[in-house]
Amino acid sequence: MPQLPLPDELDELVARANPAVVATARPDGAPHTAATWYDWENGRVLLNMDETRARLQHMRENPRVSVTIFDGDDWGRHVTLLGSVISIDSDGDLADIDRLAVRYTGQPFGTRDRKRVTAWMQPDFWSSWPLPGSLHL
Amino acid sequence: MPQLPLPDELDELVARANPAVVATARPDGAPHTAATWYDWENGRVLLNMDETRARLQHMRENPRVSVTIFDGDDWGRHVTLLGSVISIDSDGDLADIDRLAVRYTGQPFGTRDRKRVTAWMQPDFWSSWPLPGSLHL
């Protein structure tokens, strides 16, 4: 699989607010998937979770993650990023989940009384369908 | 997480030809994701891959898989199935990939000169968003 950075046309796809799935590894080695909001900044993926989410515990024990992002306007197009979580921090003021909520819904996050946690993922490799160059975005 | 069978409203969602992501575990324990076609029959998930796909090798070594399925008409709705691959067989006559291609595109699969492999997944647990009962399909 090719390494980052992404070709421009895939970078542009990933930069939009698209549907995505993040996979983590459970302690027993089984993969675990969850639909997720994300943001894309300087080649890194912003993820944010309620502090009770299983995938947060998985990330703390095994930072390897994989994210598949669909083009929300044409779900025959998708990009997968394999990499690792490089930081996990409390989203104490809900700034990161608000950033994601505004990106996806246009409004701040509705639930204000739950603790949230932010994880930044550094992708190492990518794949896409179709291959870049056959995408006409 | 609740066990199968799925509530009727989620069974109906999963039965439609929706966008999905399948996660496998690499031999080094890292999760790996890929967008996939699938079908749903008697509570099991049909997957089909070109025989060179990394995820096929992963499944042969570790049968645990996780699949997240979006409602293609409403990205905010999704179902995740955690389980194991219970069979892996050659799709010698391409019947299974044709079944998936017809389901998703209305036509048999275009590529006829590549070997394909079918895997059936038996889900053990599910989760969904929103919770069943708040879905009005």
Assembly state of the chains shown: homodimer
Counting DSSP E segments of at least 2 residues, the number of strands of chain A comes to 7
Q: If helices are DSSP runs of H or I spanning 4 or more residues, what is the number of helices of chain A?
A: 3
Return Rg of chain A in Å. Answer: 15 Å
Largest sheet of chain A, in brief, is:
7 strands, antiparallel
H/E series of chain A: HEEEEHEEHE
What is the 3D shape of chain A? globular
Mean pLDDT of chain A: 95
Give the largest interface. A-B, 27 and 27 residues
Binned strand content of chain A: 35-45%
Widest β-sheet, arrangement of strands of chain A: 2-1-5-6-7-4-3
What share of residues of chain A is helical?
10-25%
Class based on secondary structure composition and strand pairing of chain A: alpha+beta
The termini of chain A sit apart by 22 Å
Which helices and strands, and how do they pair?
The structure is a homodimer of 137-residue chains.
Chain A: H1 8-15, E1 20-25, E2 31-36, E3 39-41, E4 44-50, H2 54-61, E5 64-71, E6 74-90, H3 95-105, E7 116-129
Task: Write a brief caption for the model.
The structure is a homodimer of 137-residue chains. Chain A is an alpha+beta fold and 137 residues long.
What does this 3D model show about the protein?
The structure is a homodimer of 137-residue chains. The first copy, chain A, is of the alpha+beta class and 137 residues long. The first copy, chain A, is 20% helix and 45% strand. In chain A, strand 1 and strand 2 form a beta hairpin. The two termini of chain A are 22 Å apart. Chains A and B meet through strand 1, strand 2, strand 5 and strand 6 of A and strand 1, strand 2, strand 5 and strand 6 of B.
